[in-house]
Write a structure and sequence with these properties.
By secondary structure, the chain is of the alpha/beta class. It has three domains: 4-73, Beta Barrel (Elongation Factor Tu (Ef-tu), domain 3), CATH 2.40.30.20; 82-333, 3-Layer(aba) Sandwich (Rossmann fold); 343-427, no CATH class. It contains eleven helices and 19 strands. The chain has helices at residues 129-132, 153-163, 178-190, 208-227, 239-252, 266-274, 302-310, 343-365, 372-389, 397-411, 421-427, and strands at 4-5, 10-12, 15-19, 27-32, 37-46, 49-54, 66-73, 75-77, 85-88, 104-106, 142-147, 168-176, 197-203, 231-237, 278-279, 285-293, 313-318, 321-322, 328-329. The strands form three sheets. Strands 9, 11, 12, 13, 14, 15, 16, 17, 18 and 19 form a ten-stranded mixed sheet that branches. It has a seven-stranded antiparallel sheet with strand order 1-7-4-5-6-3-2, with no helix packed on it. β2 and β3 (15-19) form a beta hairpin. The chain starts with a strand and ends with a helix.
């Protein structure tokens, strides 16, 4: 039988404080007044005082309301019935269908023991050439998509969700506009991907604490499915909203701020989520792609800066494209040597020529005379951006590699490519 406390000693914003014992961090509590009951979560314990974030906000709560601790953290169902469903950040149905209470598991558990992990070795195909060819996504990888507000990062995530060769998609939305949430749901539904997806959506109008729960909800369900031998892809948007929610609560708690007002444990908070990416020995895997919008396009901002120390590369989304420079998949070498013999050569050669194209553009803008070689580079750069970089391009890896050869052959002679003769003989398009 859990104790009931009848005195709230402080109400600050959406955080209430009671004096209690035998309470654990992240435990849930019910705050009851004569009219309603609200759910709250323990976010701090200090000197016998317990601080709780009230999910629905503290409006209507008075100091003589009852607080009853439930003795367990937030739980979420891991049932197969979750597939095709949409939930709030606190796990309540958002789609108007019944709640699911089967196979409940705790959220926010520790990351997997390294001894249970295996070295990543499988490619996840997305149909996007700038990922599949140039920065291959690998099973169990954790990668951020660095972007600025206004870029089509949610559209990119939706496309990956539709096309990625995985068993289960788990989408976590944090601080989404309602239109963005509807776009995600409708896109997945129209393309038949909703039946293998689970959505946990926190909108900008929902309580802040639910924003903090979304990644833990997603990753707890992902781990359960991965242990059932499923290949799971977790898509999160936007981790900047998650970090801002941490900042808002730390300010309410009057914690000493760190860099730009963010809490001092920002790195640990982000790492605790990203490190859930895993490829289990004799089971499935969890791969994480998470959007991080950079305020002012500043990669030294605390959120992308800390993220870069945790993850295994990044995708840069600029001008509606995944930029080849700055984007990096540190694990791509594990898989792109096993796809096709020409994969690495096409990747390296096209990036080399695109770098030369960028230099030629600078020369052209400064009024230098263009040589015949410069003209070839300008033609190559235009074709590369149009047929490979544009996010509307949607082709399998092998077709993308063939297209790479076609672009090279259209702009250069085989002898100018710098590619080994045996690969030229095998793959160079015949006129």
């Amino acid at each position: 039988m859990r104790k009931v406390y009848h005195k709230i000693i402080q109400i600050a914003g959406n955080v209430i404080t009671v004096e209690a014992d035998n309470v654990a961090y992240n435990d849930l509590a019910e705050v009851s007044s004569g009219r309603s009951t609200s759910l709250a979560q323990v976010i701090r314990i200090q000197d016998g005082k317990v601080y709780l974030q009230v999910f629905a906000g503290s409006r209507g709560i008075s100091t003589n309301d009852e607080v009853r601790f439930l003795g367990h953290p937030m739980k979420v169902s891991s049932s197969a019935d979750l597939l095709g469903r949409v939930f709030t950040g606190s796990g309540e149905p958002r789609d108007g269908r019944p709640a699911i209470h089967d196979d409940l598991i705790n959220i926010g558990g520790p990351s997997v023991n390294p001894a249970k992990r295996i070295i990543p070795r499988n490619m996840i195909r997305t149909g996007i050439p700038m990922i599949d060819v140039f920065n291959t996504l690998v099973d169990s990888q954790k990668l951020p998509i660095f972007s600025v507000a206004g870029e089509p990062y949610n559209e990119l995530l939706a496309r990956i969700a539709m096309q990625a060769e995985v068993d289960v998609i788990i989408l976590g939305g944090m601080g989404l506009k309602h239109d963005d949430y509807l776009a995600f749901r409708n896109t997945l539904d129209e393309h038949g991907a909703l039946s293998r997806s689970v959505l946990f959506i926190h909108t900008a109008s929902d309580p802040v604490v639910e924003c903090l729960l979304v990644p833990d909800m997603c990753l707890a369900v992902a781990e359960s499915y991965a242990l059932q031998n499923k290949k799971v892809l977790v898509l999160l948007s936007d981790m900047t909203n998650f970090a801002d929610a941490l900042k808002e609560i730390s300010i309410t708690m009057e914690q000493i701020p760190s860099n730009r007002g963010y809490p001092g444990d920002l790195y640990s908070q982000l790492a605790a989520r990203y490190e859930k990416a895993v490829d289990f020995d004799e089971a499935g895997s969890i791969t994480i792609l998470a959007v991080t919008t950079m305020p002012g396009d500043d990669v030294t901002h605390p959120i992308p800066d800390n993220t870069g120390y945790i993850t295994e590369g990044q995708f840069y989304l600029r001008n509606g494209r995944i930029e080849p420079f700055g984007s990096l998949s540190r694990l791509k070498q594990q898989v792109n040597g096993k796809t096709r013999a020409d994969h690495r050569v096409i990747m390296d050669t096209m990036i080399r020529f695109y770098s030369d194209f960028k230099e030629t553009l600078e020369k052209q803008s400064m009024g230098f005379r263009m040589s015949a070689w410069d003209s070839k580079l300008l033609k190559f750069g235009k074709l590369f951006e149009e047929k490979m970089m544009d996010l509307s391009v949607n082709i399998p890896l092998e077709e993308a590699l063939d297209q790479g050869w076609q672009i090279l052959a259209e702009c250069f002679d085989a002898t100018e490519s710098g590619i080994k003769t045996d690969l030229i003989e095998q793959f160079w398009p015949k006129k």
